[in-house]
Specification:
This protein is mostly helical and 136 residues long. It contains six helices and no strands.
């Protein structure tokens, strides 16, 4: 829903403004509303919803809320795996986004594992595509 994406963008930027002004409670309130908005959208998930969330997490900084956002996104990745399967390019790309968030939190080992899973998925996809090209 385009309105959900716009509202999410507004909440992200408002939280950033509050953080710059050291109004941490207000920033957290915005992130809480953001996550509630995304959870509501994910109740009946669409590919567009996942794309919007992936884009938001790829292009924004979340300051003191990074841990909260990363925990939420871990569940998004799990939901994508359930919907699309474990050999899906979108799942692999989400694992890479998740790994980037984890690295920012200093969680190198978990980030490395997520990144390795993403690369394994990409390799499986490549092998499947190669096999399909060779099939009669």
């Amino acid at each position: 829903n385009p309105d959900t994406a716009r509202m999410a963008s507004c909440l992200i930027h408002l939280a950033e403004c509050y953080e710059r002004q050291q109004q941490m409670k207000e920033a957290k309130d915005c992130r809480d509303k953001l996550i509630a908005l995304w959870r509501q959208a994910l109740a009946v998930p669409t590919p567009a919803t996942f794309i919007d969330i992936d884009y938001a997490l790829s292009t924004n900084e979340f300051g003191s809320g990074l841990h909260q956002i990363t925990e939420f996104y871990e569940r998004v990745v799990e939901q994508k795996e359930q919907m699309f399967g474990q050999t899906n390019k979108d799942v692999a790309n989400s694992l890479l986004i998740y790994a980037r968030l984890l690295r920012k939190l200093g969680e190198k080992e978990v980030a490395d594992a997520a990144e390795a899973r993403a690369h394994e998925i990409h390799e499986k996809i490549r092998l499947l595509e190669d096999a399909q090209k060779k099939a009669p």
